Amino acid sequence: MSGGSAGRDWIATRGTALRGELVVPGDKSVSHRAIMLASLADGVSRVEGFLEGEDARATEAIFRRLGVRIDVPGEGSRVIHGVGIDGLRAADGPLDCGNAGTGMRLLAGLLAGQAFDSVLVGDASLSRRPMRRVTVPLARMGARIDTDEGGLPPLRIQGGNILQGIDFESGIASAQVKSAMLLAGLYARGTTTVREPHPTRDYTERMLLALGWPIEFSPGFARLEGGHRLQARDILVPADFSSAAFFIVAASLVPGSEVLLRRVGMNPRRTGLLHVLRAMGADIREANPGEQGGEPVCDLHVRHAPLRGIEVPQAHVAEMIDEFPALFVAAACASGATVVRGAAELRVKESDRIATMATGLRALGVQVDETPDGATIHGGGALHGGHVDSHGDHRIAMAFAIAAQLAEGDVRIGDIANVATSFPGFDTLARGAGFGLAMA
Question: How much is the pTM?
Answer without folding.
Answer: 0.85
